[in-house]
Amino acid sequence: MSQSNRRTFFLQVAACGGVLAALQVQAQGAKVDEKDPQAQALGYVHDTTKADGKKFPKHANDQKCGTCALYQGKAGDAAGGCPLFAGKQVAAGGWCSAWAKKP
Ligand code: SF4
């Protein structure tokens, strides 16, 4: 492989890596917007300590998406999927009124 062919090859590999990273972000989805109507209806917040305690008196700060039965992220992930917000990501430290303890 000539010097310039090698350079082109590495540039192509780098470009492919960038495209894959972009696709991965797309597959994982963007973070849920707290102002999204569905998020508002469920009282979703990115930070469980910011949940509206007056509106949701059963809320407790140890209730988080990361400990919710519906959370699809892995332990240690900052965010993950949730069937209530299809195609979007909820924060591991987030919360909504549909929280249910992980069995
Ligand atoms: S259902 Fe569970 S994982 Fe989904 S947003 Fe509500 S608390 Fe988070």
What would your notes on this structure say?
- This protein is mostly helical and 103 residues long.
- It has two domains: 1-28; 31-103, Irregular (High-Potential Iron-Sulfur Protein, Chain A), CATH 4.10.490.
- It is 31% helix and 6% strand.
- It is built from two helices and two strands; from the N terminus they run H-H-E-E.
- It has helices at residues 3-28, 37-42; strands spanning 79-81, 89-91.
- It has a two-stranded antiparallel ribbon with strand order 1-2.
- A hairpin with a 7-residue loop joins strand 1 (79-81) and strand 2.
- The longest helix is centred in the N-terminal third of the chain and has 26 residues, at 3-28.
- It binds iron/sulfur cluster.
- Iron/sulfur cluster binds at residues 44, 65, 68, 70-71, 82, 84, 90, 94-96, 98-99.
